[in-house]
Specification:
- 4 copies of one chain form a homotetramer.
- The first copy, chain A, starts with 5 loop residues before the first helix and ends in a 27-residue tail after the last helix.
- Chain A is elongated, with a radius of gyration of 20 Å.
- In chain A, helix 2 crosses helix 3 (35-41).
- Chain A has one domain (57-228): Tetracycline Repressor, domain 2 (Orthogonal Bundle).
- By secondary structure, chain A is mainly alpha-helical.
- Chain A is built from 11 helices and no strands.
- Chains in contact: A-B, C-D.
- Chains A and B meet through helix 7, helix 8, helix 9 and helix 10 of A and helix 7, helix 8, helix 9 and helix 10 of B.
- The structure holds a DNA duplex (21 and 21 nucleotides).
DNA sequence: AATGAATGAGGCTTCATTCAT
DNA sequence: GATGAATGAAGCCTCATTCAT
């Protein structure tokens, strides 16, 4: 009766459960996903799930953890390719947007579910937010140290950056006709760099950071419509 | 049989239910608040609640609506006292922080519950977020029109502002020992004004907007950064 | 669809649940009785049960309590009709046997279930046993005080009495073809009275205590087959 | 692959399972002990257990059986050292108490679990009880035959003895601060011997039976009661 | 208007047992 | 002989909603 799909077998059952849970949570949210749903999607039995995980909550937590880890790893990889401090910050920003743009499900789980999972996870959510904010703050601090930007309250600035990013992604997730998340990058970049006191001249260079060949220097002062340097 | 206590009658039963639900949701979140809890807190019966509201969800929606309305009204009142465009934006910002600082419960419902209520409310959450973002955008647009700030993408900027505000309040709500929310205003103001391209000179004037007497004392020579390093 | 039987309606639903649980526990034991079973037997829904009781355990406890109370009340009523100390003890003994003889279900719940309910209830079981032992001890103490019997360790004696009673009833409950529980009274009475040092002469008077007209004095010395006084 | 540790092999795996099950049952009761628990304690796998035993129930039954056998053997050994009929009964009594006093775990399994295991085992429990009662009855019958005691209904008397023993041990098991089980022997002995019509003179000789050297010193003139009041 | 008993679908978790390896 | 992953039937409990009174 059970059809044996070699491709399915290759990945361990545990992995399959995780995957199934991942998309189930992304589709219906934590609370509205029944363990039965996950079992069905993973082509297992409820008992099977409880062999691999102690609880529904544990599955969720693991998912959060690894998803966040993946994202952080990506960001750090992208940042490592940059040497200029501001470019690092730009790379971080861009990577997050690009990653979510390509993995809408990931975004759903990390942004909507985290919030939607209820009080039980809020401490965890908080820690995650802090982790990302710290990441950003690190790049901002570097920028300050290297005198790329003037001294500023990097604590609040990183929170602003994270909050902004959060909101942009959340909106995109909930929009009727999403459009491209990555397209918001240039504008978001501009606003956030400005918020950190990055000189307008540097902002005008364009946000190519994070792409392969960086530093495609745009001539400064080009007052495009809709935005302006002072 | 039912004894009529004038004090009880003063506020309609409906109102009492709303109040009870408000604090119940704030305390335990939407999903973890049972209709029974609300009934008990409102000193009514479950049936009584269902006489006044068609569902638990409806109570929550109404609460969101009126809570948001109150906040918007407050903001508009504060903004109305300002004439200078940037001061208006500052007033909006400050009012939100001050309001939440004084009504932690309100913040809880509007920020944590909204998110924690699950998929069912996300469209609503989204609309609420949009409403606030639009409000902010209006002030930014005014500022641009009056040439107080250079032209900029007010759409994204307002989202950034809202996201930042959101994050700041959320953190404060989830912090172990909260501290004063209002104290974050100066730093947040600085970062956000800068993000909108407000001239450093204007930023350095200090964010007194939103308080009783505007006292817009223009400090001369705001060349010196006016930012604090970490 | 729900047939309305006036006789059923007369007793409150709560009562019906209690009754249903009582016989269900007696039939299958605590652990092997599902809440669903009780609901079905009480012609209610599972939710209905949980409206009246907080848990399956609570139902059981209440049943234990009231059942034990009833038995104790019966015993005390029967004892009250006796004046002579030894007759009181006899009445107690006889009442327990007679009661269980007439209410096999009661015995099942009180004796087998109590034990079979698992560790969770053992403290409770213990207390119940103690209660009965104390009851017996009281009568023995009275007998000692009134010099009807010689001083003796009533603590251990009451435990012996209770244990003996317990075992006799348990055996009867588990026997293939039970026979009459009450028929064991004369023999049990004799052994227990002897264990308390009641003079053989008094034992030989016959254990009519507990029946309506007491003190039907049998001529002493009648050595029936199978038992003997010394 | 499986490393062969001689020390492990010394006792067969089967034995190890039995031991593990024994203490697990004693600790948590039959129903609350999962097969997994036994497997873990026996350092085996669940599958391993099911290789040696057809079911959890079978393990329990075997445990009951062998435990009871051991106890009976002990009793018979102790009894064999006595020649006087009443001394035999005393030895039986004392051995049971002494054994349980030294093996609380054994008592737990045999007394509490037996009861707590649920309906499924009650027939078995019954048979066990009967077995012990028969054992006792045998000694009583001998005593009657040898005219050490007057003829009496040994059937009911043995049940009383067993029930009393049962209750005493159960109480000891469930007591908060147990005290010495063996210390209850003298009092229990006195009551039970009296219940069997053993002459007061003989009772007053003291219950030394069952200890190493019988030391059956017949104190003369045991007219004085020999009982203690409460 | 209000009450509160009743409903019943559904949720999470446990666990004895089986079986491919 | 042994392992441990998998099964699936139950089990207890929650709770939004309905409805007779």
């Amino acid at each position: 009766m059970p059809r044996i799909d070699p491709a399915e077998q290759s990945r361990s059952r545990r992995e399959r459960i995780l995957d199934a849970a991942f998309s189930a949570f992304a589709k219906r949210g934590y609370r509205d996903t029944a363990v039965d749903d996950i079992a069905a999607a993973a082509e297992t039995s409820k008992g099977g799930i409880y062999f691999h995980f102690p609880s529904k909550e544990a599955i969720f937590r693991e998912l959060m953890q690894t998803t966040a880890d993946k994202l952080v790893a990506r960001v750090e990889r992208a940042v490592a390719q940059q040497t200029e401090p501001v470019a690092k910050a730009e790379a971080a920003l861009h990577t997050v947007l690009a990653t979510f743009a390509g993995h809408r499900t990931m975004a759903r789980v990390l942004f909507l579910d985290m919030a939607g999972a209820g009080r039980a996870f809020q401490a965890e959510t908080n820690r995650l937010h802090e982790r990302f904010a710290e990441l950003i703050r690190g790049y901002l601090d570097e920028a300050v140290e290297s005198r790329a930007i003037a001294p500023l309250d990097t604590a609040i600035t990183s929170v602003v950056w994270f909050g902004a990013l959060n909101e942009v992604v959340a909106r995109w997730l909930l929009a009727d006709k999403p459009g491209s998340l990555e397209d918001t990058y240039p504008a978001l970049r501009e606003v956030l760099l400005r918020s950190a006191g990055v000189p307008e001249a540097r902002i005008a260079q364009g946000g190519t950071a994070g792409r392969e060949a960086p530093s495609r220097q745009t001539v400064p002062g080009g007052a495009e419509p809709g935005r302006r340097s002072r």
